[in-house]
Design brief:
Blueprint lengths: L12 E5 L3 E5 L3 E6 L4 E2 L2 E2 L7 H15 L7 E3 L13 H4 L3 E5 L2 E2 L2 E8 L2 H10 L1 E2 L2 E2 L9 E7 L2 E2 L11 H8 L1 H24 L2 E13 L2 E5 L8 E5 L15 H8 L14 H19 L7
Antiparallel strand pairs: 1-2, 2-3, 3-7, 4-5, 6-7, 8-14, 9-12, 9-13, 9-14, 10-11, 14-15, 14-16
Helix pairs in contact: 1-7, 4-5, 6-7
């Protein structure tokens, strides 16, 4: 099936389009639609990954159930329960959308790291520190960290999120809220790791988003998806290596072979890379959830 790159719902007020998701205003609630867009090196690619939006939505719904000790914004993803005004748009919405409560999003991404990889590894290799933390010497790429780190970041609909310090986070959120989101971020991550380990998967790092509804702090947006997390097969993990991952790594690896300066416009992807990436996203969902992705 072709990738859904944009969601057009005539007569429904679109509030915003992010790198992947499009958000529509339903009055008292929001409709969140996950497209099949994919970004790499801060650029949205012109080629989508079929079924990616379905994976992100279904993965989030699965984790909301596992992590139900923290309230979230979810109302329903059952298309039959959607308001009449949305019924003409079943082809675009079924399986890849959800209706959620309106919340005031916090202005930070809440990142949990259990292993040193990505930008944290690059910083550590250069300075011996990562995200404001003094870390033990001798860590290798992909090493397990002595404890889970909370490393907040700024949020960006386009471009790259930037790590911020604990002090900057406290300035943005205040002391009480910063301590609250730190505790929840680590608790959610570690609970997720326990579940993932049973499926033979390591969660190297992930990011959560929180919002406020009626004075209550709740979990919003995607949750432990291949877009927001780094998933590794446990049997392929070894410190000192960069393990294969269930995410867009096939896309990144392909783009690195091109003579491309990593600025827009981004190149198109060959069918082989598109198909393999779609397979990895679906594999991540099915391995972690124990469920089959519903037929297209």
């Amino acid at each position: 099936m072709p990738a859904l790159l944009e969601c057009h719902l005539p007569g429904i007020n679109k509030l915003r389009s992010g790198k992947v998701r499009e958000v529509f205003d339903l009055g008292d609630t929001l409709l969140v639609v996950a497209t099949d867009r994919i970004s790499a090196f801060d650029c949205i690619l012109p080629t989508g990954i079929p079924r990616k939006g379905e994976v992100l939505t279904q993965m989030t719904l699965f984790w909301y159930g596992v992590l139900d000790f923290v309230p979230n914004h979810f109302i329903t993803a059952r298309f039959e329960a959607y308001p009449d005004v949305l019924q003409p748009f079943e082809k675009q919405l079924r399986g890849r959308s959800m209706i959620v409560r309106k919340a005031s999003p916090l202005p930070v991404e809440c990142v949990a790291r259990g292993y040193i990889s990505g930008s944290a590894w690059k910083e550590y290799a250069a300075t011996g520190k990562a995200c404001g933390f003094d870390l033990p010497s001798g860590l290798l790429q992909s090493s397990r960290l002595p404890e889970t780190l909370f490393t907040p970041a700024t949020k960006a609909d386009t471009g790259h999120d930037e790590n911020i310090t604990w002090s900057q986070c406290r300035t943005a959120l205040g002391d009480e809220l910063t301590h609250q989101v730190r505790g929840l971020t680590i608790e959610l991550y570690e609970h997720g790791c326990v579940h993932a380990a049973r499926a033979g998967v390591l969660i190297a790092d992930t990011k959560f988003e929180f919002g406020i509804v009626d004075g209550e702090l709740i979990l919003i947006d995607e949750c432990l998806t291949p877009d927001s997390s780094r998933f590794w097969p446990a049997d392929a993990w070894k410190p000192g290596t960069n393990p294969p991952s269930y995410d867009k790594q096939f896309v990144r690896d392909y783009l690195e072979t091109l003579d491309w300066d990593k600025s827009s416009p981004a190149p198109t992807l060959p069918d082989e890379v598109v198909c393999r990436t779609s397979e990895k996203y679906i594999e991540a969902y099915e391995k972690l959830s124990g469920l089959k992705l519903p037929a297209a």
